[in-house]
Design a protein that fits this description.
The complex is a heterodimer.
Chain A (H helix, E strand, L loop, with lengths): L2 E3 L4 E5 L4 E3 L2 E3 L4 E8 L5 E7 L5 E3 L5 E5 L4 E6 L8 E9 L6 E2 L3 E6 L1
Parallel strand pairs in A: 2-12
Antiparallel strand pairs in A: 1-4, 3-9, 5-6, 5-10, 7-8, 8-9, 10-11, 10-12
Chain B lengths: L3 E4 L2 E4 L5 E7 L6 E7 L5 E8 L5 E2 L8 E7 L2 E6 L8 E8 L4 E3 L3 E5 L1
Parallel strand pairs in B: 2-11
Antiparallel strand pairs in B: 1-3, 3-8, 4-5, 4-9, 5-6, 7-8, 9-10, 9-11
Classes of the chains: A mainly beta, B mainly beta.
């Protein structure tokens, strides 16, 4: 069975500091991994994905994520946080042979000025 | 990526009435669409997978007679909440399956009085 865990309900970071939002997963076969962001009363916006290739994936708005197979993790990172990055972030996973994406519980990122 | 729209963006209805939500894939022929429900401060929960030209596949615990799904064309799927009750109040989000990822609509906020 597929599963994904986001251990932190909330992450608080000062503007300009680096940020990390954690994600670990469990899936049969090779994982397809995703990060999405959700602003209030809005749908999900795609940030980045890992399918194959380089373990470090770069995405929208300066975000990146590193696939770590041994730790089954796919943490989201950004070198310098902006107040506008404050939102709800979801990690998601799909097994290579599966048809649907499973979402983590979400992490609320709050960037203080 | 694919552009996905939903209509209406929000709806308020009386208990016992039925509400139809439309999901359109504007620039992508979608053989598969997904319907999710999101309660406040919670993650997205997959309700059903909508397949063009065939019956939808519902997740465990989702009443197929209450949440009617029709996917009559490659660009349109509809979700009808029949005999809505206050506990059906939620944020409903549709998603279109792409090659390796999913693209999400902006969501529909349903409030049942």
């Amino acid at each position: 069975a597929q599963s994904v865990a986001q251990p932190e309900d909330q992450v608080n970071v000062a503007e300009g500091n680096p940020l990390t939002v954690k994600c670990t997963y469990s899936v049969s076969g090779n994982p397809y991994l995703f990060w999405y962001v959700q602003y209030p009363n809005r749908g999900l916006q795609f940030l980045l994905k890992y399918i194959t290739g380089d373990n470090l994936v770069k995405g929208s708005y300066g975000f990146e994520a590193e696939f770590n197979k041994s730790q089954t993790s796919f943490h989201l990172k950004k070198p310098s946080a902006l107040v506008s990055d404050s939102a709800l972030y979801f990690c998601a996973v799909r097994g290579s042979s599966a048809s649907k994406i499973i979402f983590g519980s979400g992490t609320r990122l709050s960037i203080r000025p | 990526g694919a552009v996905v729209s939903q209509h209406p963006s929000w709806v308020i209805c009386k208990s016992g009435t039925s509400v139809k939500i439309e999901c359109r894939s504007l620039d992508f022929q979608a053989t598969t669409m997904f319907w999710y429900r999101q309660f406040p401060k919670q993650s997205l929960m997959l309700m059903a997978t909508s397949n063009e030209g065939s019956k939808a596949t519902y997740e465990q615990g989702v009443e197929k007679d209450k949440f009617l799904i029709n996917h009559a064309s490659l660009t349109l799927s509809t979700l009808t909440v029949t005999s809505a009750h206050p506990e059906d109040s939620s944020f409903y989000i549709c998603s279109v399956r792409g090659v390796n990822e999913q693209f999400f609509g902006p969501g529909t906020r349903l409030t049942v009085l």
